Amino acid sequence: MANARGEFSSRIGFILAAAGSAVGLGNIWGFPTQTASNGGAAFVFVYLILAFTLAYPAFMAELLIGRYGQANAVTSLQKMSKTLLQKRFAFIVGFGGIIFASLILSFYGILAGQMMSFAVEPVIRTIGFESIADWVVVGSLSRNLLFTAFFMCLTLYIIKKGVQEGIEKWSKRLMPLLIMLLICLIIYVFTLDGASLGLKAYLNPDFSRVLEPNLLISALGQAFFSLSIGTSTMVIYGSYISKKENLISLGAQVTLIDVSIAFLAGLLIIPAMYVAQHQGVAIFAADGSLIAGPSMVLTVLPALFDGMGVVGSVVAFTFFVLMTVAALTSSISMLETPVSYAVERHNFERKKASMIIGAVIFMISVIIISNIEELLGLAIVIATEYGQPIVAMLACIFVGWIWHRSEILKELQQGNAGVEHSLFWKIWPWYVKFVCPTAIAIVFIHFLNRSI
């Protein structure tokens, strides 16, 4: 069955694909500004601890579900179920992840399309088409529709190719490109006036804030959600892993790459913002906090690039290509989640399933674009602050309370014969049973209280 549905051909193929899924726009613009707003290196310190002590165990739960089931999220969870009630619960958890992955992609495509439009702007302006260049950076309905459609077509192109020829091949191309662009931009920004202040704001620790509830909750939320936990994407990617691979080390390597790229993003974004401030660009909001999210990427940094002259066009192009690549490595995993379900549960041909599901998700994007001020933020909140925590928590409950411990051990022993004697096996089952669901519930309650 694994050969018929495809699997990753190499260890590095899975690592880059899974890391690509985890590394997205949130890592590039979310982690750096959270760090600067929450005690600098103190936040980084807490984030790193929580990423490996809490997020990694939950991440492993989803990988294990997928490799055991060797199928889409719903089928994999139902293979672990013994009773009718458990099978119904499995459907809710698996299909819930599919729904939220699709919803995330519907607004993710819009944001990624904006990144693409800003990437082509300096090229168009350089060759003399000033009016078109102005149009691609103005948030018009037609601009958003065109670039969202273009981004979705790129995602569809990769997914239609399947696991090895699509997801794995392009992850091996895109992830090294992303890392190379990131390092090149960091080196360049460090040469500019004001960068040292940004580096100090990013790396100077304020350890008096380490135990602040808001810092802990923010770091925990960033750790969980930056690893794509709660959208069933890691269940799908886990199902494409060979039974010969050591899942424990694979999961640890993906986690390490994810947090490393998030850290590198901070080395780029925060110094770049202070460089912008040095050049007269406002980087703080009215409440005194650093400008974050899309406003930072689409307002503050373009203003910085504009002040660099000809060099700024090259830097702007490179930066927004970086953002587009980060978005694409995540979007292919999001689309694979519903496509694999349609192919395996309803016998759709992969290309047909990709086209139909891609079209449906794009239509949701069109609805959001048509009323973007109200619907974009609502879609983000529903998917990331409500959907992801609930699905992630239920997946941990499933592994910790429903899946029999002896079956989990047998699955881990494939590719790691002596795992029962390891520290991981002595700790992880209790972590995923008690600690991870509790931690995710705390993050979820925090989001609820914040929104009330």
UniProtKB/TrEMBL annotation:
Keywords: Membrane, Transmembrane, Transmembrane helix, Transport. PROSITE patterns: NA_NEUROTRAN_SYMP_3 (PS50267). It is a multi-pass membrane protein. The chain crosses the membrane at residues 12-32, 44-68, 89-112, 132-157, 177-203, 215-238, 250-275, 281-304, 311-333, 353-372, 379-403, 430-448. It is found in: Membrane. NCBIfam families: Na_transp. This is Sodium-dependent transporter. It comes from Thalassotalea nanhaiensis.
